[in-house]
């Protein structure tokens, strides 16, 4: 396939809510065009206000019921995104979503659909049934969520001492839900519709709309080699990619998928050509857990910002990750990265490059590194009067609790960090920013005390150090603008 480059793509998102996914893309990719459609007016209004503040002329957030959409009136799109919708709407709406994909996808277009799958979603359904039954007489969403939180706390110890596999599964599920985001909890476990499906059945329905299977967005799940040896042998003995993937879902007890679809008439080969990786630029923020040995082929761990660890063995890969961490959020062209890694790992030879490419691909398949089509340089310095870019300041001002990074990841921010972002408009130096935050904290501490809280102002030195750390973090994720030259 030769899909459209993101910089000039036409993108449709069905079930876009307030545009939290599309707005950052529209801001970072001004040459692309974006259409988001949702039925709910309140989140759309909030999204439109944010888009208007950013003057995004390449984005439209449209209110419509998906069931009444006429695909022919929408136009053609290079990418169609449907996240967190398909399994939570009735059968006719599911068919309409597939119909829109089949009718509106460009000849080289790609559709992304996330959905819940069997068999793994079945035991989750037990927890869902329990939570829905427990709150069946409650109509107010806030009161209902409070009741669910209370029940989850009481359930925390119910299955803990039971060694049965199902009891242990339910215990882990409850433990995760106790800390789940309210929106996820309400949507996934209290919604009216939940319709998990076998992957093979999903693909059979997709094929009726002229769609074929391209890949899974979680690429590493497509490899039987990630299974125990006996399971791998079983899967390899099966004919056909769909049949293999379905059996892997059973063997893994998989509960959800992120499927990429294309037009069914495109002839595809699912054989990998790892040499194609040389055509891309790479970015990654993986830091070594301990001092790295660049002289031996030995497994060592690198950690992502969220704490997830990835093991690599080849000296060149370790050297490349060190180079990428120093350059982040820049994307380094592969030839440049390979040369830098060879210089850094002096004992490695060029014939070790095969190991580098294999491990980089594995990291990519596990979403540990990003690939883009060309080298990208992002400003990540700190000026005397730092300025957060417009998107960061707008998101902080909307009190979303997070900022979208240049790599389309989420950086969570508390109210203090969000206030700092809003103040970073290029008119204040570090001391002035700290002084403004002291006023902000004094006001909010006073409000907390009035409400019975016991908040205290941090020492000046601690606040100064905290501001420096936050600004370095914002710079690290490409959220700052380069100061204007006089």
Give your account of this protein's structure.
By secondary structure, this protein is an alpha/beta fold. It has 4 domains: 181 residues, Vaccinia Virus protein VP39 (Rossmann fold); 69 residues, no CATH class; 99 residues, no CATH class; 87 residues, no CATH class. The protein is built from 18 helices and 15 strands. Strands 3-2-1-4-5-7-6 form a 7-stranded mixed β-sheet, sandwiched between helices. The chain has a 3-stranded antiparallel β-sheet with strand order 12-8-13. The chain starts with 9 loop residues before the first strand and ends in a 10-residue tail after the last helix. About 1% of the residues have low confidence.
Question: What's this, in brief?
Answer:
With 486 residues, the protein is α/β, with parallel strands linked by helices.
Low-confidence stretches: 448-452
Which superfamily, in CATH terms, is the homologous superfamily of the largest domain? Vaccinia Virus protein VP39
Biggest sheet overview: 7 strands, mixed
Structurally, how many domains make up the residues? 4
Name the helicity range. 40-55%
Q: What is the 3D form?
A: globular
Strand content: 5-15%
Question: For this structure, what is the CATH class of the largest domain?
Answer: Alpha Beta
Backbone structural class: alpha/beta
CATH level 3 topology of the largest domain: Rossmann fold
Tally of DSSP β-strands: 15
Can you name the CATH architecture of the largest domain? Answer: 3-Layer(aba) Sandwich
Computed over alpha carbons, the radius of gyration is 25 Å
Quickly count the helices: 18
Mean pLDDT: 92
Strands ordered across the widest β-sheet: 3-2-1-4-5-7-6
N/C terminus separation: 47 Å
């Amino acid at each position: 396939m030769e899909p459209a480059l993101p910089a000039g793509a036409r993108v449709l998102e069905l079930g876009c809510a307030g545009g939290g996914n599309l707005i950052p893309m529209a801001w970072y990719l001004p040459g692309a065009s974006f259409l988001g459609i949702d039925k709910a007016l309140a989140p759309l209004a909030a999204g439109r206000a944010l888009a208007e503040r950013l003057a995004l002329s390449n984005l439209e957030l449209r209110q419509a019921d998906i069931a009444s959409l006429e695909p022919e009136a929408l136009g053609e799109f290079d990418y169609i995104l449907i996240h967190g919708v398909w399994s939570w709407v009735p059968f006719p709406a599911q068919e309409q979503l597939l119909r829109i994909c089949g009718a509106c996808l460009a000849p080289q277009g790609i559709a992304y659909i996330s959905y819940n799958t069997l068999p793994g979603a079945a035991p989750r359904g037990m927890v869902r049934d329990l939570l829905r039954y427990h709150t069946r007489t409650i109509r107010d969403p806030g009161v209902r969520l409070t009741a669910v939180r209370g029940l989850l706390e009481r359930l925390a110890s119910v299955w803990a001492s039971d060694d049965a596999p199902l009891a242990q599964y339910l215990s882990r599920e409850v433990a995760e839900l106790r800390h789940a985001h309210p929106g996820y909890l309400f949507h996934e476990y209290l919604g009216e519709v939940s319709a998990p499906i076998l992957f093979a059945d999903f693909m059979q329905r997709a094929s009726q709309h002229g769609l074929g299977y391209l890949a899974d967005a979680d690429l590493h799940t497509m490899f039987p080699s990630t299974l125990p040896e006996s399971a791998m042998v079983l899967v390899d003995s099966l004919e056909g990619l769909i049949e293999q993937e379905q059996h892997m879902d059973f063997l893994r007890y998989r509960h959800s998928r992120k499927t990429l679809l294309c037009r069914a008439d495109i002839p595809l080969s699912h054989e990998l050509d790892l040499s194609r990786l040389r055509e891309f630029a790479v970015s990654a923020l993986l830091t070594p857990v301990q001092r790295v040995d660049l002289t031996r082929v030995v497994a060592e761990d690198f950690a992502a910002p969220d704490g997830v660890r990835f093991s690599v063995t080849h000296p060149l890969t370790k050297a490349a990750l060190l180079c990428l961490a120093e350059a982040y959020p820049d994307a380094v062209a592969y030839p440049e990265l390979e040369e830098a890694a060879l210089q850094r790992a002096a004992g490695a030879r060029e014939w070790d490059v095969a190991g580098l490419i294999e491990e980089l691909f594995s990291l990519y398949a596990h979403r540990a590194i990003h690939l883009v089509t060309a080298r990208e340089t992002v400003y990540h310095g700190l000026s005397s009067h730092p300025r957060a870019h417009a998107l960061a300041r707008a998101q902080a001002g909307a009190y979303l609790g997070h900022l979208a990074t240049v790599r389309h990841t989420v950086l969570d921010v508390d109210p203090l960090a969000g206030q700092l972002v809003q103040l970073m408009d290029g008119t204040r130096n570090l001391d002035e920013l700290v002084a403004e935050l002291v006023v902000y904290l004094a006001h909010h501490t006073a409000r907390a005390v009035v409400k019975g809280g016991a908040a205290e102002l941090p020492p000046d030195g601690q606040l100064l150090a905290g501001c420096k750390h936050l600004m370095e973090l914002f710079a690290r994720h490409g959220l700052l603008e380069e100061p204007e030259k006089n």
